[in-house]
């Protein structure tokens, strides 16, 4: 069922990640960034306490959108073409962030690491007991993924913000997919597509030794 006007459903957001993978296992940046835009909208709807997170995500999405709409937009059609282009043109800082502080490769890497958190979090939400705490699921997913890349002060702020998350059932309801049970089914359908985007990106970045870009 379509969401009411004004409201939006997390189903459409997550299906952008499905649309991002081509038959040749390329990742299309257009749908990938659309998925991220939708996630940010959803995050903003959870309250101002999350705005320090959404601001950083938006800044990164904007960097990528400007490449995708810029002069070299052909090179930024897929993740694969972006990596090939930026590496061949010497546009990636490998050791230290200096001449190319905002390369597409390092910017996507940050979103990619956050996608791992999303995958763990939504899977945790999907499989948890009905009375589980969203904040605990969120903290556990964060500690198992993104936290490793964040300094203490960011980890602290994130952990405090997580405490503001609503209960599991309320969270499933604000996804706007229907009942909590329907949201759980939707997550089961959507998560393999997010895993696929994550896996393809991880493999590509590993191949080119880009997983630790500064
Ligand atoms: C539903 C609850 C939402 C929890 C979101 C979990 C992620 C917490 C991340 C907190 C980090 C925010 C502050 C910015 C940190 C940046 O330093 C890093 C590294 O970038 P650099 O400094 O190297 O340029 N940025 C990131 O790690 C990207 C974080 C993006 C988070 C997007 C979350 C999307 C949430 C969707 C909710 C459904």
UniProtKB/TrEMBL annotation:
Compartments (UniProt record): Cell membrane; Cytoplasm, Cytosol; Endosome membrane; Golgi apparatus, trans-Golgi network membrane
GO biological process, one term: negative regulation of interleukin-1 beta production
The keyword Transferase is annotated on this UniProt entry: no
Record-linked SUPFAM superfamilies: Glycolipid transfer protein, GLTP (SSF110004)
Keyword entries, A-Z: Cell membrane, Cytoplasm, Endosome, Golgi apparatus, Lipid transport, Lipid-binding, Membrane, Nucleus, Transport
Reaction(s) the record says it catalyses: N-(hexadecanoyl)-sphing-4-enine-1-phosphate(in) = N-(hexadecanoyl)-sphing-4-enine-1-phosphate(out); N-(9Z-octadecenoyl)-sphing-4-enine-1-phosphate(in) = N-(9Z-octadecenoyl)-sphing-4-enine-1-phosphate(out)
Glycolipid transfer protein domain segment(s): 29-176
InterPro entries per the UniProt record, alphabetical: GLTP_sf, Glycolipid_transfer_prot_dom
Short name of any one Pfam family annotated for the protein: GLTP
Family assignment from sequence similarity: Belongs to the GLTP family.
Name listed for the protein in its UniProt record: Ceramide-1-phosphate transfer protein
Source species of the chain: Cairina moschata (Muscovy duck)
Lineage: Eukaryota, Metazoa, Chordata, Craniata, Vertebrata
